[in-house]
Amino acid sequence: MNQEVERPYDGCGRCLVGVRRLSRKTDASWSPERQRQNVLSAVQSVNGHVIAWADDWEVSGATNPLDRPQLGPWLRDKQGPYDGIAGAAVDRIGRSLVDCLNTGYRMRDEGKILVTFGHSGPWDLNDPSDENQFIAQAWGAQMELRATQSRNRDETEKAREQGRKRGKHAYGYRYVRLHPKSGIDHVALDRGEDMPPEVRERENATDIMREVARRILADTSDEITQFTEAARLTRAGIYSPTDHLRVMGGREARGSAWGGSALATMLTSEAALGYLMHRGKPVLDDNGMPIIVAPPLWNRATHEALVRKLSPAKPRAKRAPAGAYLLSNVAFCGVCETKLYRTGDPVSMTCKSRSMGLSECRPSPTMQVTILEEKLGGWFLATFGEHAYMETIYDPGNGVEEELAEIVTARKRLRDDRDAGLYDEGDDTDWYRTRYGQLTEEIKRLKAVPTRPAGMVTRPTGETVASRWGSAADDGERREILIENGVTVAVWPESHQPRWVPLVNGCDPDAEISTSLNLIRQRRLKSAAQRVPVES
Q1: Given this model, what pLDDT does residue 322 score?
Q2: 178: burial class by Cβ within 10 Å (0-12, 13-18, 19+)?
Q3: Omega of the bond prior to 296 within 30 degrees of 0, cis?
Q4: What's the CA gap between 43 and 39, in Å, rounded?
Q5: Distance CA 403, CA 442 (A)
Q6: Which residue, among 348, 259, 324, 319, has the nearest Cα to 480 in the 3D structure?
Q7: What is the dihedral of CA 135, 139, 142, 147, to 10 degrees?
Q8: pTM of the full predicted structure?
Q9: Alpha-carbon distance 95 to 108, whole Å?
Q10: CB 97, CB 138: distance < 8 Å
Q11: 3 state SS of 473
Q12: What average pLDDT does this structure show over 292-311?
């Protein structure tokens, strides 16, 4: 480090923050090192020194400087004292005329210094000559930005018209180029080929998405949702879609977590069918059919099942339990039947219904987590361990229903266009009649083909419950095994014998204890009914 130009804040009046920015960190024309040297030269020319660097990598020049992750906090006075900022050029501060001027005038009004490489001395925006020069450079940066945006839009529209993919690909897919700098040749399933060797097997995005879809569709307990799956993937260290894309491009992962809502959007998007998409909808060819640019992650029947399962119209999906705890949503109070919470030190499962105002549970049971986990785990393996472990999968059928649905949808879309006034004149009318007849004949043909409907199929995996329990990654997966087998546990106060009761689908396998539980429930219901005031 250059001790003269880079040193901590000392109140000398020339303590500057170095500003660097790149939309793409691989952009050699404005490499980080070149920007660094330019900033240091500019700082030296005004007898200042750099106290910190505001490096915004992978940040568009269209982003407001106030909103940039590194520079923004300095401008909002949330990073400590400083005397101004120094950039490698005006367009490194921003590429929007308004944003550049707002930042420049902010520095002026707060009495701070604004320095950029190539300009003699600090910018003085009170001086008309300096102000005009600053505006001219900011205007040039904006013109370059607008030209780039316009060029990108034109290229995107041209690619869409030609049925080609462009832009960011969907998670589960990757672009294949015949040469590193050539255009996209085709879109393929992402099985980790572009990932570093040490994570290639783990980061098979295609299998990850298919496994998530299988688990959600196979679940009948409503315990496996997009939120629990997002939590599971994060715990397993699977790169989020954003980090996956960064690592594919040779950049470092930022450690971002999976989001449940974003995962649901990916699962229900028709992009997973291999369609070319625009604004969330498939791009259609001249025959009114979706343009296919990639192999599908799953078929239409699976897509429709995922849409139904994750429909926003359904009751709000359960959030993932906090942490990978074995007893979350598994341990319940034997007195009031509300779920138990982790509290205290040593950590115990405790009934909090009285403190939460939910019931008059007295006495409230408490039991140490380690003791309860050991007892429940031992009982579960002794009871279920030798059983064959079964998995439920979604069988999409033989695909006839899916193909028929596609053709019916295309015919309806064609009819809607006709009702809207299209195909009313000349050759368009003849084309419409021909195409409509073709679709109708195809529908008749498919209806005559025997179908194997989609549905859930349960099959053995070759494992036992004990071996699956032992190979589980963490207690979060073991909790899922308990829930799959309908196992929960009721905990009672110390005065009650036994202290804990394992339940299967809400009932105790021991008939004697089950009868005891039923009697207690009946007494509680009777007591609650007596407390209800009678209307006069």
Answers
A1: 47
A2: exposed
A3: no
A4: 6
A5: 10
A6: 324
A7: -170
A8: 0.58
A9: 19
A10: yes
A11: coil
A12: 88
Angle at 197 between CA 193 and CA 203, to 5 degrees: 60
Instruction: Tell me the pLDDT tens digit for each residue of 362-406.
Output: 888 999 999 999 999 999 999 999 998 887 777 777 778 777 887
In the chain, the amino acid numbered 69 is P
Q: CB within 8 A of 57, min separation 6: which ones?
A: 21, 22, 25, 32
Q: And the tokens for 442?
A: 């195809």
Q: What is the DSSP letter of 254?
A: -
Q: How far apart are CA 268 and CA 311, in angstroms?
A: 9
pLDDT tens digits, one per residue of 465-517: 999 899 888 888 898 889 888 899 999 998 888 889 898 887 766 644 444 44
End-to-end CA distance of the chain: 86
Given a contact cutoff of 8 angstroms between Cβ atoms, the answer to whether 55 and 76 are in contact is no
Instruction: Provide the pLDDT for residue 280.
Output: 81
Report whether the peptide linkage leading into residue 81 is cis, meaning its omega lies within 30 degrees of zero.
Answer: no
User: Nearest CA to 100 among 69, 127, 62?
Assistant: 62
CA-nearest of 177, 2, 18 to 87 is 18
Q: Tell me, what DSSP letter sits at residue 29?
A: G
H or E element that contains 129:
helix 128-161
408 contacts 416 by C-beta, under 8 angstroms: no
Which residues does residue 115 pair with via DSSP β-bridges, in sequence order? 86
Strand-by-strand arrangement of the 113-116 sheet: 49-57, 15-22, 84-87, 113-116
Lookup result for tokens 């779920």: 339
- Contact by Cβ (8 Å): 243, 256: yes
Query: What radius of gyration do the chain's Cα atoms show?
Result: 32
In whole angstroms, what is the distance from residue 225 CA to residue 309 CA? 9
* Residue among 227, 247, 284 nearest 171 (CA): 247
Q: Which amino acid is at 503?
A: L
Cβ partners under 8 Å of residue 377, min gap 6: 326, 469, 478
DSSP 130: H
**CA 498/CA 235 separation, integer angstroms:** 35
Extract the tokens encoding 302.
């699976």
pLDDT at position 349 over 90: yes
**Per-residue b/e over 359-392, b at no fewer than 16 CB within 10 Å?**
bebeebbbbebeebbebbeeebeeebeeeebeee
Q: Is the dihedral of CA 328, 330, 331, 334 positive or negative?
A: positive
Q: Is-contact 147 118, C-beta < 8 A?
A: no
- Per DSSP, the three-state class of 378 is helix
What's the rounded Cα separation, in Å, for the pair 327 and 375?
Answer: 12
Cα dist from 207 to 37, 190, 233, 468, whole Å: 45, 9, 13, 20
For residue 233, what are its two tokens? 């993937």
Torsion of CA 17, 23, 24, 30, to 10 degrees: -60
Angle, helices 260-268 vs 205-218, to 10°: value is 90
Phi, psi of 237 (to 5 degrees): 80, 15
